Amino acid sequence: MAKIKHNNFLDTVNEVFTDAKQEGVMHLYAQGEKFNGRTIEVKDRSLFHFGTTGYLGLEQDPRLKAAAIDAIKKYGTQFPLSKSYISNPLYASLEEKVCEMYGHPIIITKNSTLGHIGVIPSAVQDQDAIILDHQVHWSVQSAAKILKNRSVPIDMVRHNDLNMLEDKIKRYSDTRKKIWYMADGIYSMYGDFAPISDLMLLSQKYPQLNFYFDDVHGMSWIGKNGTGYVLSELKELSENVLLFGTLSKTFGASGAVLVCSNKKMYNRIKTFGGPLTFSAQLEPASIGAAIASAEIHLSPEIYTLQAELRERIAYFNELLQQTELPLIDQNISPVFYIGTGMPKTGYNFVNRLMSEGFYVNLGIFPAVPVKNTGVRITISRHNQKEEIKGLVEAMEYHFPKALEDTFTNSERVFQAFKLEQKHKETSFNTTTNENLKIQLEDSILKIDKQLWNSLLGNKGVFDWEGLKFLEESFSGNFQIEHNWDFKYLIIYDQEQQPILATYITVSLWKDDMLAPVATSQKIEEERKIHPYYLTSNVLSLGSLFTEGEHLYFNSAHPQKQQALNLLMKCLEELEQPSEAKMIVLRDFQENKEIHNYFQGQGFVRIQMPDSCSIELDENITLETYIARLSARNRKHLRKEVLETENLLEIKIVQNPTSVQLQKIEELYSKVHQNNLGLNTFSFPSKLFSNMAAHPNWEFISISPKSNPVNMIGVMLCYKNSHNTYIPAFVGMDYAYLEKYHIYRQLLYQTIKRAMEIKAKTIAMGLTASFEKRKLGATIAPTYAYLQTADNFTLEHLETQQG
């Protein structure tokens, strides 16, 4: 396994969104000449609207519309001046009314995203630390990460995990002045709450603890004067709390609001808060509408509106409880989430609901883990009971249809969200498993040798003999990371012809294996004290020892879809008992059919380093091979390889002495320790002694002729059953790297050796494609597909970068 590219996360998100767009569920355009809030026109159809964040429907209130129009007439479409110099005449009235709502000083911001960017760097000092709830809104996380430039530590805890939070607080309590915990009041995807009361108790135990709450989804529909969920729980805003609300969404206007009871901090933020100083101020129409909304919030009418919404929420909850639908979190918020598990099921379900006349949102990566895709439904005062009931009936009817269409079932969905199912299903899919036979074994010794080698024997160090070697090497070791579980899967048709075959391992991986080098360096410091910090069990096609096409798949077989479905079932059944946090499918080259299938099953694609290989003609000689290289590459070969070859003693070592074997392991370890770009655990010592005793393994060693006993480089090579030569691992003494161009020399000697033994192919593996291309390797883009139980590890690693 090797390093992904730095911009890969954005590429992955782009792929997921593009897929959803092509399925017709994202990046849509509303139509029509007017909008009433109850319905929305999409694709030439009027749909009941269950996707709004205007929960009280104030955006359609005639008073807000009239105030906005009046403000434009009086002051124009905008007031093009920085607020630091002078504010629109309406601002004073708005600030006065919003301040009255909260009973504390406030700051109006252009929107919550710019507000966070302005407030967090102003409020948090260099001596402080930040701990993020891993589901806190992206805008908060993004603003917090700005402080990395000031060396403020940024950490993360699992969602609402107070035990983990307390451990982090203890970690920073002796070195940091304030510890800021940043969370949402109401979380925008599942509609669940921050445990405000418990957090306040924690702050009494740890006086350094301060809070930054983003309560934009808790605004208006709950609390005194509609000031939101957090304040409704706090009752009074203490000085260790910064609170963000919104003037958009449920408030019906535009902008956001910071509430701060600490006067010293308030003055510092207001005087100079980055975007708060330099951004354009709210447009007159937005201020006018916000003033009208604030007047409603300050009147008894707000409680009537809240009660009307509560009635609809309670009705929706009541109807949902009578169904088998996987509601992810039952609470009193207007946000509901029905899990679908896989993206393909989510696309199907959303499109089915739109065909029935209901508009809902799709919850998708990166807002949720890919396998936790679902339908996000919001209830507003616009919704009437008849369409609420109609939506539930439509979901109850179409949910099993969507599962059937996408070859899955409700048990898989409930399992993905760790929910208890009222009535469990007993079969994976009754329509796709007919006439297929699964062979799943825990040792290669239980697999027919000739059959295995005919399917996967020419791919790498995972022919039958190679896997027997790996089983022996990665079992019975002292350290847990050196013991792997092996599984072998073959799926046959009714004629006993294989459709699909692969081998699977469960092993301990470092979570930062694919992270930037600087991140791994930081994490390795922690591992000096806690060796298994940020490590997880991973279920993988192939293993960390092997590279190449680990999946045999007959794409021409009429039952190929059923075979892939059974592969997914097998992986899911292995995932739970192994306590794997991630499933990795690797190493694939560009294949649209496979890509579409894996993406629909909840996997995200990441680009690996390019795969490198060399095909050798039967009668090729070293001279004819070199002649095929470009003039530039021949020059490189002469200057950096051939000139130093005469200075070196090169040996093919097949039965190394104990001294040689110790040196081989030492040189490999130097490369391993130097390669944090591919941060994996080391291999057990037993592996090297097993190599020395195995007839398929040999070592190409190089030493200076001036000191022939001093081995300075070694290539660890495997000869597989299909006459493929695999330079699997390299070892080098970096003190001689530049003088003798050790790595390039070893690559060249590998090619020479492959020709000597009449190999048909050299599987050069991943990484260093630039060097291998210069020596004639063919380069092919390579991909892996990842599926995680949640996004915590990925997001936590993001906080460690920089």
From TrEMBL:
Residue spans crossing the bilayer: none
Keyword Transferase carried by entry: yes
Reported cofactor(s): pyridoxal 5'-phosphate
Gene3D superfamilies per record: Aspartate Aminotransferase, domain 1 (3.90.1150.10), Type I PLP-dependent aspartate aminotransferase-like (Major domain) (3.40.640.10)
Keywords: Aminotransferase, Transferase
Any GO molecular function: transaminase activity
Record-linked SUPFAM superfamilies: Acyl-CoA N-acyltransferases (Nat), PLP-dependent transferases
Domain annotation Aminotransferase class I/classII large: ranges: 50-393
Protein's name according to its UniProt entry: Aminotransferase class I/II
